[in-house]
Amino acid sequence: MSDKTATNGEIQKLRDTIQLLDNFSQHGFSQIASIARLALESLKVPEASHAIYDIANALEAILDKAEYVEGCINSEAESFGCNYIDKDQRQRWKAHAANRTEG
User: Fold this and answer.
1) Is the pTM of this model over 0.70?
2) 2: in domain
3) 96, 40 contact by CB (below 8 A)
4) In the chain, which residues have pLDDT < 70?
């Protein structure tokens, strides 16, 4: 057996994590979709202009939920060393940081 052969415990941990990620995505994204649908429906009502704060709160909730779910999924993936790394984005961050220190 090579060092890269997974044990039954490791396989089960991976399966459990995949199920957890699926739970995060189903629960979080269904909430995001529901909030967005309600906000869109409210815009069809003539009195919607009076609910601008409610619509703004709904949009903030969408943003918060999206960032929370993204963080949960990323954290679980990272615990396995399987998180996605956008090399182009990291290069842009480095360039931005270099510009800030020069300016």
Assistant:
1) no
2) no
3) no
4) 1-3, 103
